[in-house]
Amino acid sequence: MIHDVAKRLNSVLTPEDLALLEKAFARVCELRGISQTSPPAQESAKVLINLYQSGIRNRFQLVAMLTGQRYP
Other C-beta atoms within 10 Å of 48: how many? Predict the structure, then answer.
């Protein structure tokens, strides 16, 4: 899912970037109790990519920002 969204956003992400985002995305979906293919998950993927591109590179911080969890 995150790969598809990144392509639609014309994002230039390395394989390492995508791996980090995939882990964050999976955790966000798990914590929110949503399917990774659902419309809310697609929106979460967009937000994750935008946050990552704005400079937030910590997977745990990204998850916290989308789920309301405390960080650190």
Answer: 25
